[in-house]
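About this split. The held-out portion is used to measure sequence recovery: a designer receives only the structure tokens and must propose an amino acid at every position. Recovery is the fraction of positions where the proposal matches the reference. Here is one held-out target exactly as it appears in the evaluation file.
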């Protein structure tokens, strides 16, 4: 049990994680600037509106609330957007994280679970599954920013100032079982919510970005993982950090969160048609900049280290859960 600061807790994965941490009995403070999050997503603990660049606010929260550990979700996430606005990504993701880590060190808060991403691997299609030890070769600014922060955390851990676990998510999907917390980005760029918008008539069609990739059906392959499984993994990573006894030593670990099963864009669209029972128009377009052909996790490490197993991450369940949420929008 601890006092936990959840930076970016009003977003899709952060808000789901709050529910899971609250069940474990943690006392929670969410800090979010509502750039992409929603205050009404914060269904557990207290909410503070504010920004990672506000050092005075960070000092105040960390000290007054006697924070034991931070879970850091606050970042821009769209790979495609990062290609067009790289400086926004470096400022928000890298400079914001540096400011947070500096505040943590100032206030002797040593433990952090960090939201990283499969995008750190870039394009390594010669491997069916991406193992954590592969070289990090991001192909978009988003992936660069996340890898930079991982390097920073590792280097700060090496001088014994930080204990950190970086969780490299593959493609988050689904919603909570009560369909309150789903993907609602503005503008929405992610495949599953857009496909479901085509199904519910909120858009005329869905575009497939690229049909000439070197994959079985020519479209990109991703490893989709249910957001409630991601939330679970955060609870376990946090527990591991809070239970560490060697409190004077630094610690860095990084692990993939995925299922080791890949699904193509076409497969997602076909499954969405089955789940919803609705046919909709599909348009084939050229590739989107910054997209690797295939991102599928070697997910053994998280199972071993965290004793974690995905439970709701079959494609039909994820799309059905996302559909429940999307219809209520
Ligand atoms: N896609 C389409 N049509 C669309 C939207 C997406 O064909 O209208 C394709 C994309 O080109 C890509 C795939 O669907 O090939 C998945 O795209 P998303 O935008 O849903 O997700 P990304 O794989 O680009 O990125 C997501 C998160 C990142 C995370 C990454 C990890 O946004 O934060 O998953 O794999 F790093």
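Reference sequence for scoring:
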């Amino acid at each position: 049990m601890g006092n936990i600061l959840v930076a970016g807790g009003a977003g899709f994965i952060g808000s789901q994680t709050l529910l899971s941490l609250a069940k474990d009995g943690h006392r929670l403070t969410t800090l979010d600037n509502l750039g992409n999050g929603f205050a009404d997503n914060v269904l557990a603990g207290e909410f503070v509106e504010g920004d990672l660049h506000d050092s005075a606010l960070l000092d105040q929260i960390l000290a007054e609330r006697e924070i034991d550990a931070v879970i850091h979700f606050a970042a821009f996430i769209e790979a495609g957007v990062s290609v067009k606005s790289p400086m926004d990504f470096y400022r928000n993701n890298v400079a914001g994280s540096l400011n947070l880590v500096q505040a943590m060190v100032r206030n002797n808060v040593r433990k952090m679970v960090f939201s990283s991403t499969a995008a750190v691997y870039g394009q390594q299609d010669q491997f069916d599954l991406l193992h954590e030890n592969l070289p990090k070769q991001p192909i978009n600014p988003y992936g660069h920013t996340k890898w930079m922060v991982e390097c920073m955390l590792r280097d700060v851990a090496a001088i014994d100032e930080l204990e950190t676990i970086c969780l490299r998510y593959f493609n988050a999907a689904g919603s909570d079982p009560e369909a309150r917390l789903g993907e609602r980005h503005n503008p929405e760029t992610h495949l599953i919510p857009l496909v479901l918008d085509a199904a519910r008539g909120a858009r005329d069609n869905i575009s497939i970005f690229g049909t000439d990739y070197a994959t079985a059906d020519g479209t990109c392959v991703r490893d989709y993982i249910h957001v409630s499984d991601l939330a679970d993994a955060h609870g376990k990573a946090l527990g591991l950090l809070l239970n560490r006894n060697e409190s004077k030593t630094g610690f860095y670990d990084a692990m993939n969160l995925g299922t080791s099963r890949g699904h193509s864009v076409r497969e997602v669209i076909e499954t969405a048609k089955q789940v919803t029972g609705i046919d909709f128009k599909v348009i084939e377009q050229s590739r989107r900049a910054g997209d690797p052909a295939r991102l599928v996790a070697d997910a053994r490490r998280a199972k071993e280290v965290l004793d974690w197993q995905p439970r709701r991450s079959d494609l039909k369940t994820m799309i059905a859960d996302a559909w429940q949420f999307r219809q209520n929008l």
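Annotator remark: The two ends are 34 Å apart (CA to CA).
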